[in-house]
Amino acid sequence: MPSQPSATLETFANPQPDRDYTIRMTLPEFTCLCPKTGQPDFATLELEYVPDGLCVELKSLKLYIWSFRDRGAFHEAVTNEIVDHLAAATGPRFMRLTARFNVRGGIYTTIVAERRQPGWTPAQAVVLP
Which of 46, 47, 51, 60 sits a CA distance of 20 to 30 A from 21? Predict the structure, then answer.
């Protein structure tokens, strides 16, 4: 197999470090295992962040997300673990990870976890007529 899951997140220099801008990514193929039953849990991850000095490299993110496939994890724990790892690797001004898990037992679960640099505040939203 040409690539394998990896717990390593690679980064590259932010090409516009003097500007606040948002990077949004949708990762529709996240899987982990239910720690109670061992059954697979499927989710779509939505990552949004305002980079500071570094951005996450996409292939490493894909391989990192793949590394959860055979791990048992509660939805709340795995969402917070992923956002912690991403924030540690990139040091963003702001980061939000939304994990929308598919139905299990008639219940959809959505977890939202955020990290913010101390003192950073976003620009005021522009409201157009």
Answer: 60
pLDDT recorded at residue 1: 56
In the predicted structure, residue 2 carries a pLDDT above the cut 80: no
* pLDDT tens-digit readout, 11-53: 999 999 999 999 999 999 999 999 999 999 999 999 999 999 9
For the question of residue 55 being annotated catalytic, the response is no
Q: For residue 100, what are its two tokens? A: 């929308």
- At 94 the three-state DSSP class reads strand
Catalytically annotated residue among 20, 34, 52, 84 = 34
Whether the model clears a pTM of 0.70, i.e. scores above it, the answer is yes
| DSSP structure class, residue 51 | -
In the annotation, is 41 catalytic?
yes
- Chain-centre distance for alpha carbon 91: 13
- With beta carbons less than 8 A apart as the criterion, state whether 43 and 71 touch: no
Domain 21-116 has CATH 3.30.70.360: no
- The active-site residue out of 41, 52, 70, 84 is 41
Distance CA 11, CA 81 (A): 18
> Per-domain residue ranges for the chain?
21-116
